[in-house]
Amino acid sequence: MKKLVIAAAVAASFFGGFAQAEDAKPDNEVSFNVGVVSEYRYRAISQSRLDPALQGGADYVNNPSGFYAGTWLSTIKWTKDAGGSGDIEWDIYAGKKGEIVKDVSYDVGVLSYIYPSNGLNKVAGFADANTTEIYGQIGTGPVYAKYSHSVTNLFGFVNSKNSGYLDLGANIEVPEGYTLGLHVGRQTVKNNGASSYSDWKISINKEFFGVNFGLAALGTNADKKLYVTPAGKFTGKTTLVLSAVKTF
Question: What is the mean pLDDT of residues 229-245?
């Protein structure tokens, strides 16, 4: 489940000791990303059975309009753990972002999480894993608030259409080129109250040698009897996650 990656780099070059004007952004930009994580967590719940995962995607943005679209994939294990099949998550998304007024941004869109051949609808107590959400975000400076609303059943939960996820956070630039990320979230699972939970994350990121490295501490208060691997390990436990992503 994808965490949206849109490249928007503004470069300033220097020649002969004089700073030149910022390069104008092209109308259309395409970027690609590939990465590896020590564990794939989404909304702080492990999607990879507490194991590492490979990930990658592609993004398009039209700068004049703020329209964007993209796709992203990751290896997963949770659909098999739930009794289904498949080992891939494939996300497809599109939206529009811009400013409401000066220094107040918005981002609205739709995101579909696809689990090819997951077969969970054939497993007792589960619905199909494929999920679509619409979302809206508002932000100012480093602070943002985002709400995602499912227009289908949510990740295999039966009768869970109209579930919601509230995401509050900040991405703060700190000295030496590091970015500090702060996040708290609340996942509400419609008609499945016992599966609702809150999560949190503190992260630090920096680019080295053209690769963005991250370290995140995160956890949840999810039910330890519901969010478990087949071996009984709690998939929402507090942990550290390492990541390395190359965008080009």
Answer: 98
Query: Which residue spans within the chain are E strands per DSSP?
Result: 14-15, 18-19, 28-37, 41-42, 45-46, 53-62, 67-75, 88-101, 104-114, 131-140, 143-150, 164-174, 178-188, 197-208, 211-220, 239-247
Residue-wise pLDDT tens digits, 55-110? 999 999 999 999 999 999 999 999 999 999 999 999 999 999 999 999 999 999 99
CA torsion angle 110 98 73 118 (round to 10): -10
The answer on pLDDT for 23 being more than 80 is no
Kind and range of the H or E element at 78? helix 78-81
SS3 assignment, position 75: strand
3-state secondary structure of 7: coil
pTM of the model: 0.90
Q: What CA–CA distance (Å, rounded) separates 140 from 101?
A: 10
Encoded tokens for 54: 């490979």
Distance separating alpha carbons of residues 111 and 90, to the nearest angstrom: 10
Cα gap 179→226, rounded to integer Å: 34
Q: What is the pLDDT of residues 190-211, one digit of tens each?
A: 999 999 999 999 999 999 999 9
